Amino acid sequence: MNIVKVISTKLQESKRFIKFVNMGKDDIQECNTIQPHGIDSNPVKDMVALYAKTSEVGKPVIVGYVNENQVAEIGGSRLYSTDSDGVEQIAIYMRADGTAEIGGDADFLAGFNDLKAGFDELVGDVRTLTTAHNLHMHPTAATGPPSPPTVTVPVATTASIDAAKIASLKCP
Question: How confident is the model at residue 7 (pLDDT cuts 50, 70, 90)?
Fold first, then answer.
């Protein structure tokens, strides 16, 4: 096995080929890359990779890359992407304590169904209160029948959080 430096990548017939510098600046080679099932990643220029020959003559492979920015705690796993300069852009961090962070930990994801149920209950309460307000009568000191309120409140009928639902993200 050799440690090599990535120059570029290309897709060819649904396979990713890595062009790399092997044994010196004039030893430019290209081979297929091996990745775990379900992972499709494309390394950036200048990444350091592990190159290995196989039992099939002329079919060497890149079997992995050196991660220069490891931060996952013991038992944790991170999946991340970078820009073409290798600068991390976003990560999904599954922590050893059972929590997961998508893009950081500055905020929380919400369970949409519970949030919607609470919101719909609040909208119903506002409608009930609004209707009661609009129908109540003020007694008058003058002669004559009681009068309705001078200011009526429109009934909230269009409030909705449905657009906030991200159907492709689900949680327990």
Answer: very high
pTM more than 0.85? no
Residue by residue, what is the 3-state secondary structure of 12-56?
Answer: ECCEEEEEEECCCCCCEEEEEECCCCCCCCCCCCCCEEEEECCCC
Percent of the chain with pLDDT over 70: 87
Listed in sequence order, the residues at least 6 apart from 77 whose beta carbon sits closer than 8 Å to its beta carbon are 93, 94
List the chain domain ranges: 2-65, 69-108, 112-164
Residue 147 DSSP class: B
Query: What is the CATH code of the structural domain delimited by 2-65?
Result: 2.40.50
Characterise 96 by phi-psi region: left (phi > 0), alpha (psi -120 to 50), beta (else): alpha
